[in-house]
Amino acid sequence: MSQRKAIGDAGRATIRDVAERAGVSVASVSRVLSGNYPVSEELRRRVMKVVRDLDYVTNAHARSLAGGGTPTVAILINNITGAAFAHVAKGVEGAATLRGWLSLVGTTGDDPERELALVNLMRQQGVAAVVLLGGAYDFEEYQLRMARFARSLDAAGSHLVLVGRPPLEGDVPATTVDYDNESGAYAMASHLLSAGHRRVLVLPGPAGLTTAQGRLKGARRAFEAYGVPFDPGLVRHGPYDDEHGYAAVKAALHDTPDFTAVLAGTDVVAAGAMQALRAEGLRVPDDVSIVGYDDIPLASQLTPQLTTVHVPYEEMGRVALRAVADRREGTGPAGRRKGGGDGEHLVLGTHVVVRDSVRPPRRHT
Amino acid sequence: MSQRKAIGDAGRATIRDVAERAGVSVASVSRVLSGNYPVSEELRRRVMKVVRDLDYVTNAHARSLAGGGTPTVAILINNITGAAFAHVAKGVEGAATLRGWLSLVGTTGDDPERELALVNLMRQQGVAAVVLLGGAYDFEEYQLRMARFARSLDAAGSHLVLVGRPPLEGDVPATTVDYDNESGAYAMASHLLSAGHRRVLVLPGPAGLTTAQGRLKGARRAFEAYGVPFDPGLVRHGPYDDEHGYAAVKAALHDTPDFTAVLAGTDVVAAGAMQALRAEGLRVPDDVSIVGYDDIPLASQLTPQLTTVHVPYEEMGRVALRAVADRREGTGPAGRRKGGGDGEHLVLGTHVVVRDSVRPPRRHT
DNA sequence: GGAACGATGGGATACGGTTTCCGCACCGGC
DNA sequence: GCCGGTGCGGAAACCGTATCCCATCGTTCC
């Protein structure tokens, strides 16, 4: 019992090492560990002791190869730093953990190239599903690109889940978990309108982004419903960050200073807008009202606390994972029930959270 | 060439399928794909065409088993939602991607049980390293626990990296990437003291957490250096969230209302504190000054913008990954240079970021 | 012109488990 | 006392890929 095979004991212990040391067969060790086969108490004790002594863990790769293995779900984010995305990731991760699944996170940095590379990487990993987070630029190629992803993954026994972006057109094997983006914006704008605001600076976000488009559309609809003319000159597109909020308000104060409220596409944009107003000596909400979108923690940390639209990000994550898990079980015994391309589409509700950043207009228009 | 082996074509294409269809051997396909062996142009074309036709990707598990495979680094976070941690994760992930490494993220939810489970899971995955993020509760068992992790991982050819917590004692094979926590707090407190503040409400964070302890200690040292008596009655421990900041300030305003500044353990805590002060009709910084710690984006989104301590979170992530990568290469040709337990310890600097939340005291003490 | 050699491609094996198929005891029943 | 059933452990066949070793073919050098 002095020196075993190698001196360095390099690498990890294998199941064979355990078997040998316990004086049993490899099969027995496997059975003790997976526990899906009757094993005598005596054998179990012997094996477990050696397992503890050697601090043995099974090789996940080998296990996956042989058919078993932990299901894994991949989360692809543009930017892990975004609070909204982080919450979705938390939802996915939590639900995954609950089921004993593993979760991988990758960031794409808005780069289609990198997105492709990551999807392929995940395909190599044999993940149960790839969850794509965040709004998308719906340019011409996008639909084809996603459809290709969806089919590729589907063919490999995996599945594509789109979270926070509109569903794909046509018969594509992808699941979409979405929220009622437009209605949220509609409700938010209505809130401002019913408070008496007529001239509203709108900062929807990046022009091509689906979420920005939806939010803008919802706002517009609200104006129509209220019979208030919607001035395109009060719309300023730009990135979802506080700098844009700041710059846009500064510019608007110069060009069209008669607005009495700001409808920001995001809480972060609202934060920037608020800074700019303050910098110009305007008070919020006394002089100008502000509303946001997302209801991330920041919204309630600002002063005044931000009235915003609550988006159930974390729940979206949970729902996404549940959808994948259900589908996976459904494919079980009684034949594959998943027909060719069933594009499941789940929509979650949003609602306005009223805080302290809105007041009836005061300034003369 | 009509119907191949199975009808459903279930699962993914294997390298054998490709070889067969291209009329070459499995070895050749492997060589074409990995590209580390001379291959004729003709063969390469034939193989690549089939690869594209079949949309084939190699099985990462099989590849890992056979010796190749992408190095993977696991990131273990308490709560993916925390902005600071997210930045570290971003740093790790970015650096990993740059090297073609893969990164996994798991959340522990502050549960030692779950932490153990995750470390084992990662060990199964054969990750190159496990990066543990965030402050730790340095209770008695902690050191033993981490030492065990470190040795386990080391024995399996992996490595433990501690980020944002103090290094382990003794000869433990773990790398620590830390920042100068105490000095940051020292500088921050000095900033307040030199502005003239004498009665400072200190909200270090959770009592047992190493980061909170360090920050408190740094503050205390500053008081000593300035010859200002440090009143333990003005220290209030509690979680790193805005609710605690809010509640603590409210309570302090009732019990010891003579403080002129708040030294928060975190920007988020500072945000809560600010809310409470405002709710009580106190202006920031006119009536009470506030400083934070971390310099997350929130700090510059608050009004007034928060003076705080910048912690290079993202860089810490990058450094952590670099340390792992270097070590891995170092273990290469010329024998394992890593002696038994070289506890490498890297410390990054912090600095105060002066914004608008501090002013000389006004209120009478 | 023959032999040694470089450039390529193929067959076999290893990686570390899981799982199927078998065989060996040991048991009770007739 | 013999036979069939049952419970448990072992040997071996994969899982999909990388790589080692060998065979082959076309060159080039002597």
From TrEMBL, chains A, B:
InterPro entries, A to Z: HTH_LacI, LacI/GalR-like_sensor, Lambda_DNA-bd_dom_sf, Peripla_BP_I
Keyword terms: DNA-binding, Transcription, Transcription regulation
UniProt-recorded name of the protein: LacI family transcriptional regulator
PANTHER family attached to this UniProt entry: LACI-RELATED TRANSCRIPTIONAL REPRESSOR, LACTOSE OPERON REPRESSOR
Organism whose genome encodes this protein: Streptomyces aurantiogriseus
SUPFAM superfamilies in alphabetical order: lambda repressor-like DNA-binding domains, Periplasmic binding protein-like I
Pfam families assigned: LacI (PF00356), Peripla_BP_3 (PF13377)
Segments of this protein annotated with the region Disordered: 326-345
